[in-house]
Amino acid sequence: MSDYAFLASGFPPSATEHEITAYLRRSLCHLQLTDYGGSQWQPEIVGVSVGYDFARHAELIQRLVDEHLIDVAFTLEQRNRTDSDYSDSDGSSASDSESFYVSRSFASQRAAAAESSDGCQDSDDVLQVLQVLENSGTVIVICRWPCDFAEALEHVQQQLDLDENLWEGSRITASPIPCEPTSINWANFAVGLFQSQWQQRLGIRKWLTSCSTRQQRLLLANAMIVGAFLSMLAFYTFLYQHVYASIGSPDKLLVYVVTLSCALGNVLLNQVVWFASQQAGFRLKSSCDSFVLIWYTIVILTNMCFNFLVICLSAGERPENEFATLEYEQQLADRLVAFLRGSLLTYAVWPLYYPLKWVSGILQLLYLHLFRDRLALTDDRCKWKAEHAMEPPEWYMQYDYAGLTVLKTTSFMCLFLFGDGVQKLFTFDILWVLCTYFLNKYIYLALSKETYYTNRMLDTTALQSSSMALGVLAACVCHWGHRANPHRSEYVISVVLLSCLYLWAFDAILRSAQDRRSQSERVWYDSLPYEEIQRLYPFNWWNVNPAHMMRLLHLSPLSSHQSLPAHQRVVWQHGKSYLQPDLVLDFINTESRDNDEGEMEMEPPEPPEPPFPFPAPPTVTVTHPHTEPRPQLGSGRDGHAQSTWPAARSVPTGPTQHHEGALQPARTI
């Protein structure tokens, strides 16, 4: 869904959702865009999802969301029981739909959330907190058609920069969103308006007055990592002086002490990196993951290079005899492999986090069963806690990416030496990759697909970090070429130049692919409007926003809730997609979406009512993509291109009440 949205920043805290929507529609009403297929279309604004400043009340908002989902889960269970008992009764679905939210009042949910909040005493206090939430200044603008390519955002920014389109004299900035709705940290949208308590104690503003709060947090996070890393290197230096320098041939026990110390140091540094990433206040999860991946890779590789250097320097002078040189390299390779087997222990231990997490969930279930009466838990809350304890955690792709980069780099480092230990190291790497592949595909993906996701920014960063391993391999080729014939220096120079040229071109292509997508990367749904796309997924740009959903449910009239689609009235969370009551497709079984053969034709569902009225509701021609050929890219946006799909039927996507003369030409999809 990131194809249909972009970020807009620069709004004042008092700007409301409807005011921003009206401003954007007025500013972009005369803008005409041309996509990759050559079709011209207008960036119709569906609505905006406001990023509220609720960092101080994040715990309260989360408790409200939990109470809301507990109520939805309990009511859904009761409705399923009723459907099983009265499946042959006419009108049962309508009665269930009308009573879907009547199990508990919103005041009861607020009162339950206030019990665990320090700043709220009752339901009225919670309602007051929701009313005073301010706009962080950044919103997510949702368009009816894909607008993620760079040219479209450039034209949008030019239109917003016009003097007549300024917001109270302030300039609004448009930027792309490189991630899906599920990858946004809504609590960090207001970074720049507040400081944490420990930052106030350190007095960061006094030392970095020219930087924004977000930049101050990022600089402080980097300084924290560098300081911890330098302290660890000083400890390693002291350790090696008492092991390798003082003893000519260290025994196995001392080698294991050093390698295990390095492994523990890697674990501690990784925790520091994770803590710093959480304190930096990233709005997008992709930025946070890329930050962790870069620092994680730098820390591990620098640690490896440092230890490699110390081990090689402590091995003594290289003998002049060729046979003695081979024996010398054999011993050095064995020592390096002995070190790596201990220092790479973190990669072998990391996948065990998930089985241990499962064991922890079992223990929590046992605790809830034994102490349920003492904790005074109701049936629905006890079921909710039990389900939450057994949910699979997020699979942190940044650690897998960093592990692959580090393993390839360290393995290529061992190619500089001759010995049987190098073969053992490569065997260890292959076994690690096979185990990781097995865990990813056959265990974790079988449990949860909703917490197993990556993004374009993280993938690009991972590919860029892989260039370090390629650089080490190229240096290894130069090394052995120079040893084979030391007088052929032009060979080494040519390899270095070609390697640098290749890495430069590789990096340039990656950066270009990250910013803008080519025609070959467009997907089949690019010709569908947003109202149809949001019916295919359990999440959208509104139901993933906790502050927006709580304000909608608790502050707006009940009649406005019922006018929205059902999946815009239920908050989405990881592992809770089954609570979305009107999904068209099963989010777990997604293989059938691209299967065009052997499927029976299904009638497309009626489109939902948009959250805001459109000035000119069009008519869209839709057919199911499983049985019919897909259209060419860009067809149908300008109202002139003809569809290649036979037997298509027209479905209105806007409100059912049309004004005279406002109906646009039919868009064929």
TrEMBL record:
<feature type="compositionally biased region" description="Acidic residues">
    <location>
        <begin position="594"/>
        <end position="606"/>
    </location>
</feature>
<protein>
    <submittedName>
        <fullName>Uncharacterized protein</fullName>
    </submittedName>
</protein>
<keyword id="KW-1133">Transmembrane helix</keyword>
<feature type="transmembrane region" description="Helical">
    <location>
        <begin position="218"/>
        <end position="241"/>
    </location>
</feature>
<feature type="transmembrane region" description="Helical">
    <location>
        <begin position="491"/>
        <end position="510"/>
    </location>
</feature>
<keyword id="KW-0812">Transmembrane</keyword>
<feature type="transmembrane region" description="Helical">
    <location>
        <begin position="293"/>
        <end position="315"/>
    </location>
</feature>
<keyword id="KW-0472">Membrane</keyword>
<feature type="transmembrane region" description="Helical">
    <location>
        <begin position="253"/>
        <end position="273"/>
    </location>
</feature>
<feature type="transmembrane region" description="Helical">
    <location>
        <begin position="430"/>
        <end position="447"/>
    </location>
</feature>
<feature type="region of interest" description="Disordered">
    <location>
        <begin position="594"/>
        <end position="669"/>
    </location>
</feature>
<feature type="compositionally biased region" description="Pro residues">
    <location>
        <begin position="607"/>
        <end position="618"/>
    </location>
</feature>
